[in-house]
Design brief:
The complex is a heterodimer of chains A (about 220) and B (about 475). By secondary structure, chain A is an alpha/beta fold. Chain A has six helices and nine strands, in the order E-H-E-H-E-H-E-H-E-E-H-E-E-E-H. Chain B has a two-stranded antiparallel sheet. In chain B, helix 9 crosses helix 13. Chain B is globular, with a radius of gyration of 22 Å. The chains are: A alpha/beta (about 220), B mainly alpha (about 475). Chains A and B meet through helix 1, helix 2, strand 3, strand 7 and helix 6 of A and helix 1, helix 19 and strand 3 of B.
Chain lengths: ~220, ~475
């Protein structure tokens, strides 16, 4: 029984906003905390998340974002120290929450002592750039251009698609199951979606939520 | 369902959003309920619709603020879910779900006599009064014609919606335009007819109730203005929603009130309040057959246009509430507030199949109710859920003062407070009226609330039992473009 996650994103800049948009496309509930009024206005225009205007290190503001029922908080501002502070404050207010902090340097892996996960967008970006420069025919998963997402999705046992052949599951157009259960062959109409196995799936953002419904329940 | 809403390109403009709201509000209420309102309030039925427009406008402001600041397409339930704890939001969803299902029954019941009237206009069946005259005294076996028709209408639309995704907003725009034009024709012909020029609106209030008779009639017809909840269920498809949704709410409400007032004035002016009351659900259609020109080629009878409008409107409104009710149930299932299968998309049909079937059961059952009871119950639950929406606005302002609100209610907190007060007054009046005249509706309403309480407790117990094992597997198994 998976349900949509409630996620707080602190920092509505480039990284924060893109993350919020991806999450919202997959049907999760996102609340953004952002301090700068002009950015708040821009986010509101895009209509992906509820916005709390204020300083994310202020416990009162974190509470207004609904930290008690949130499943995860991602502090994605450009300032590492601030991000760590936000995550730790959130953990203090809601011990069960999953915390993700954006960091500046790869050395920051050691921060996982304080937070559940760290992200380093610059490195991911650099890898993309390197791939692009080499111009290789081989594309990595994260190198998909445009809006398309290639994801690894594990079939949940209670999902509508579990145990069914691909031919019997009506995937929305804009979604394609690429691999079979072992990741060794291209999926065909006879491929069975086995609960607990992961599949490579290509989806357009518009149908990502529906695909999640089918495979995750 | 929500997947289609978060389409990358927002396709509906202000006009489409407005039309969705008007389509729901002008839908069936005007054809089905005017006769009933006239029965209770006499010529003051005009006043009834005007006052209801005013009362509902306060809640409209609250919807506008919530819809502009919470980017979700779930309508009232989604907003309340954002603000309240499990129990309160469950109650809200439970009530709204019921209100829509019963509205479905009401529209189906309104469809049947109008359909009979349409057949009658073409001489295929005797006048509806006669069809029903045979039927009415024998409550169980002989009611069939109308009830069967209503039953069939629900079955048909449920089947269509269960196996295919709903019609898009632009289709809705065309539907609404058709309905409104038919009503404009009705008003135009009615206003120039000799019957209207000798119209008698005196005495304005009925003898036995006086001015206060307006209140129960307001309660009964309140459902007519429930449409903007529907606008907020498609917000994510609307361009620039933070501006267009509040506008669409106000424009559709304003336009609807104008249309209602014109139509009710003409209906009462031509048929008289008593005649309208007698005609019941087919009131407008009958008024039309009295003054519309006859002898037109093909359609023969001008009244047939209006009767067709009534049939068309009740069916499209029925379609809208089948979608709306299943959407509420679906969101509740998604949120874990109903059994999870209700919150799933069918793997083959791509529709919230179980949610539609669950809604269909109650809707089909409600077809056996008298039209008036269905109207009463649906209005009662809309009133109650609108109270909750107004409370949600106030609570959200207090608890989340820093939330960004692109649209803010003017003169806050007066409008939501008035909204709560007036909706509660109407609820009180309606309950009192039900105690006197319709204990069946009241009993069923209380029964639904109790059933809700039991469902909530049962699910709560079930969840606390199984949550433990679930927790470990709920960890994010979805790995998008891994970073390392």
């Amino acid at each position: 029984m998976t349900k949509d996650l409630k996620v707080i994103v602190a920092g509505g800049g480039r990284v924060g906003f893109q993350t919020a948009e991806l999450l919202a496309d997959r049907g999760h509930d996102v609340t953004i905390i952002e301090q700068r009024t002009d950015i708040v206005e821009q986010i509101a225009d895009e209509w992906v998340a509820t916005v709390i205007e204020g300083d994310a290190t202020n416990p009162d503001i974190i509470e207004q974002a609904g930290v008690e029922d949130a499943d995860a908080i991602a502090a994605l501002t450009g300032v590492t120290g601030l991000n760590l502070a936000v995550c730790m404050a959130a953990k203090e207010l809601s011990p069960g929450i999953r915390t993700v902090a954006r960091i500046e340097r790869s050395a920051g892996e050691s921060y996982t002592r304080f937070v559940d996960a760290v992200v380093f967008p610059e490195r991911a970006g650099a890898r993309l750039a390197a791939n692009e420069i080499v111009g290789s025919d081989v594309q990595t998963l994260s190198d998909v251009t445009g809006a398309l997402d290639i994801m690894l999705i594990r079939v949940h046992e209670e999902s509508p698609a579990a145990g069914k052949r691909l031919a019997d599951v009506r995937f929305p157009s804009g979604a394609l199951v690429v691999s079979d259960a072992d990741g060794e062959r291209i999926a065909g109409s006879d491929t069975t979606l086995t609960a607990g196995k992961r599949y490579v799936v290509a989806v357009e953002p518009a149908v990502a939520d529906e695909v999640m419904n089918l495979m995750r329940g | 369902m929500s997947s289609q809403n978060r389409a990358p390109e927002a396709e509906l403009g202000l006009l489409d959003a407005t039309m969705i709201g008007m389509g729901a509000m002008i839908g069936a209420g005007i054809f089905v309920l005017t006769g009933l309102a006239a029965e209770i309030a006499g010529p003051a039925a005009i006043l009834v619709f005007a006052l209801n427009g005013v009362v509902t406008a306060f809640t409209g402001l609250s919807y506008a603020e919530l819809a502009a600041s919470i980017p979700k397409s779930g309508g009232g339930y989604a907003f309340v879910r954002e603000v309240f704890d499990d129990l309160s939001s469950f109650v809200m969803g439970w009530m709204l779900w019921f209100a829509y299902m019963i509205a479905g029954g009401l529209y189906a019941l309104g469809f049947a006599p109008n359909f009979l009237e349409l057949l009658h206009v073409y001489g295929m069946v005797p006048p509806p009064e006669q069809v029903q005259a045979v039927a009415l005294p024998l409550v169980d076996a002989a009611l069939p014609v109308a009830v069967l028709l209503a039953f069939a209408a629900v079955l048909l639309l449920v089947a269509v919606n269960a196996v295919s995704t709903a019609a898009s907003g632009s289709v809705e725009t065309i539907f609404t335009a058709v309905k409104v034009s038919i009503l404009v024709v009705f008003v135009a012909f009615g206003a120039v007819s000799p019957m209207f020029s000798t119209a008698e609106f005196q005495p304005l209030f009925p003898q036995d109730g006086g001015a206060l008779a307006v209140l129960p009639a307001m309660g009964l017809t309140f459902i007519a203005f429930e449409g903007y909840d529907l606008i907020t269920t498609v917000t994510e498809e609307v361009e620039n929603p933070r501006e267009n949704i509040p506008k669409a709410i106000f424009v559709s409400l304003g336009a609807t009130v104008v249309v209602y007032l014109a139509v009710v004035s003409v209906a009462i002016g031509t048929l008289g309040a008593d005649g309208l009351a007698e005609a019941g659900e087919a009131g407008i259609a009958q008024a039309a057959t009295e003054f519309m020109p006859t002898g037109i080629p093909v359609i023969q009878n001008g009244g047939a246009v209006i009767v067709f409008g009534a049939v068309f409107s009740t069916l499209t409104a029925l379609n809208a509430v089948v979608i709306a009710s299943s959407r509420v149930a679906f969101s509740m299932g998604r949120e874990g507030q109903l059994v999870s299968s209700i919150g799933q998309i069918h793997h083959k049909y791509g529709t919230p199949f179980v949610a539609i079937l669950a809604s269909a059961v109650v809707m089909l059952g409600s077809v056996a109710l008298p039209t008036k009871s269905a109207g009463n119950m649906s209005s009662l639950f809309f009133l109650l859920s609108f109270v909750v929406v107004n409370v949600a606005v106030i609570r959200l302002r207090r608890e989340r003062p820093n939330m960004h609100r692109p649209y803010e209610i003017p003169f806050y907190p007066v409008p939501p407070a008035l909204g709560i007060l007036l909706n509660l007054v109407l609820t009180g009046v309606l309950v009192e009226y039900l105690i006197r005249t319709d204990p069946l509706a009241l009993g069923l309403s209380v029964g639904w609330i109790l059933l809700g309480g039991l469902t909530y407790l049962a699910l709560d117990r079930f969840r606390s039992g199984s949550d433990r094992d679930d927790e470990q597997t709920t960890e994010l198994d979805v790995t998008p473009e891994s970073d390392d």
